[in-house]
Amino acid sequence: MHKRKGLLGILKSLSEVLTGEIVVPEDDKYEETRAIFNAGITKRPAGIVVCKNEQDVIEALRFAKEQQMEISVRGGGHHVAGYALNEGGIMIDLSQMTDVSVDEEKKVVNVQGGATLADIDHETQKYGLAMPTGTVSETGIAGLALSGGFGYLRGKLGLSCDQMIGATLITADGNVLKTSDHENADLFWALRGGGGSFGIVTEFEFQLHEIGPEVLAFDVMYDLKDGQQVFRELNKYLENAPDEVSVNLTIMDLPPEPMLPEFLHYKSVMVVAGMYSGSPDEGKSVVGPLRELAQPIIDNTDVIPYVDLQKKLDPMVPHGQRFLPTSLFFEDLSEEVFEAMMIEKEKAPGPLMFQLWENHGEVNQIDVSYNAFAVRNSKYLLLLDLMYTPEQEEAANQWIHNFYTTFKAQSINGAAYLNGIEADDQITESTYGENYQRLLKVKEKYDPENIFHNNPNIHINAAQDA
Ligand SMILES: Cc1cc2nc3c(=O)[nH]c(=O)nc-3n(C[C@H](O)[C@H](O)[C@H](O)COP(=O)(O)OP(=O)(O)OC[C@H]3O[C@@H](n4cnc5c(N)ncnc54)[C@H](O)[C@@H]3O)c2cc1C
Fold first, then answer.
1. How far are the Cα atoms of 245, 284, 414, 416, 424 from residue 360, in angstroms, in the given order?
2. Most ligand 1 atoms within 8 A of CB, residue of 159, 162, 419, 451 to mutate
3. How far is the CA of 134 from the centre of ligand 1 (A)?
4. Domains of the chain in sequence order
5. 28-43 confidence digits (pLDDT tens)
6. In whole angstroms, what is the distance from residue 180 CA to residue 20 CA?
């Protein structure tokens, strides 16, 4: 109690130098400010610094270091492993730093480190421009782009990190560094895929491209009993699919929600969804076969505003549930392995979002050494999110771990999408493959004490231990 009082006094001294504010557990708004996407993460920071500008970030970092407190950084708060939170330390929260400004002539967007994908699309689409992001608009750009960024434009334009052309960050020693291909290029290379291990990004710069404002969005629901056929026919289609098409396959058991027609309640389905990023008229014939992989239950394929497509999945992933994630990349996925996955899926102890995102085109044509993102040879990215109740926690942990280890052997060296998994040293190293040693050198130069470790961490000891 005494100690806590002392700490509150020290935290108050920080609030005097902030434009933003510090929120502590005693405050009414603590729970709301602490909340992140995954309600299963129970860590409670001693203080949350809600930053309004770059100087606030510098002050928060300086304070936490002086007090030798744990540090975590929050962008959109969507990482399912809950890296934004920490126990008893300082959470540096950028979620109110959301400015986005577009240079229409240069086709460049500047984005503050706490902006969401919705913030970006809202501004860029005013000019008929876009950059590759993700598929749920409430996700933060910072976490997404620092570790990749898979969305509907990956075939045509690659990942979010591939379109990053500059970033300003606060390094472990409290300096503000501008990075690009011409300034601090080693650090800029690491930021594009290497995650949050190197500092706190206050501003990103991305290249924009002409997309929309209307796009052809395909969205076809099949019965999972036809799953094998859909998967087989999809693979045939992908042999010649143009880069303008990227396909997301989602398998789930539909809940008995009133918003769904009754015949769909509890039904196991497979949704084939994505967009054609060229002209919508041209796209209709190109995506035609994806609408006939088997007999569809529902076909919602339509020409819709790009911003609507980017928000379409938001209601499917409500905040405040408990989630456990896992992920793997596959260079190829045979029908036998797919079938084995479907058998394992049936044993899941809670509702499961099972996604297979196919990769071809630009995402795989970029050289592995171009930036830190190293998995450039995957045909499929597997993303699993298992929902559970507190009573199911142990079974859920076991099931998700078992799924990862069972299918690791068929994957690309156990590599995972670090934005969709709680990574350990081995997974992180496998995922960065030949880029890992280069990342370690950058880490050693900019954060040798590993101040920034609440992330799929790149750190010197990991290399010594391995
Ligand atoms: C509902 C949902 C949908 C998703 N859809 C997609 C998708 O379509 N495509 C895709 O690729 N991924 C997707 N993801 C995964 C998503 O990319 C990651 O969760 C990502 O880390 C989210 O970033 P964030 O800023 O919201 O997260 P946070 O939890 O705030 O941060 C994630 C990590 O980044 C660090 N970080 C955050 N901000 C900064 C900063 N400014 N500077 C330095 N480090 C920072 C954090 O410390 C943490 O380690 C989805 C996740 C969810 C929950």
1. 9, 20, 20, 17, 28
2. 419
3. 10
4. 2-93 (3.30.43.10), 100-210 (3.30.465.10), 214-408 (3.40.462.20)
5. 999 999 999 999 999 9
6. 28
Of 166, 34, 143, nearest to 89 (Cα)? Answer: 34
Cα-to-centroid distance, 23 and ligand 1 (Å): 22
Q: Give, for ligand 1, the residue of 97, 119, 146, 157 to mutate: max count of ligand atoms closer than 8 Å to Cβ.
A: 146
To the nearest 10°, report the CA torsion of 227, 299, 237, 284: 180
Q: How far is the CA of 329 from the centre of ligand 1 (A)?
A: 18
> What mean pLDDT comes out for the span 275-290?
97
SS3 164: strand
| Count of beta carbons in the 10 Å neighbourhood of residue 320 | 9
Give the binding-site residues of ligand 1, using a 6 Å CB cut-off.
Answer: 37, 72-80, 83-84, 94, 113, 134-136, 139-140, 142-144, 146-151, 196, 200-201, 317, 419-420, 454-455
CA gap 36, 76 in Å, rounded: 8
342 SS3 class: helix
Model pLDDT for residues 110-125, shown as the tens digit of each residue: 999 999 999 999 999 9
Residue 462 confidence (pLDDT)? 67
Q: Of 74, 24, 28, 77, which is closest to residue 46 (Cα–Cα)?
A: 24
Q: What is the mean pLDDT of residues 237-259?
A: 93
CA quadruple 249, 252, 258, 264: dihedral sign: positive
**How many whole angstroms separate alpha carbon 461 and alpha carbon 446?**
15
Ligand 1 center from residue 330 Cα (angstroms):
22
Helices in 79-217 by DSSP H: which ranges? 117-124, 141-146, 154-157, 185-191
At 192, the amino acid letter reads R
pLDDT of residue 109: 98
Token output for 302: 């339509």
> Is the pLDDT higher at 355 or at 1?
355
Q: How far is the CA of 281 from the centre of ligand 1 (A)?
A: 34
Residue type, 246: S
What is the C-alpha to C-alpha distance for residues 41 and 366, in angstroms, rounded to an integer? 35
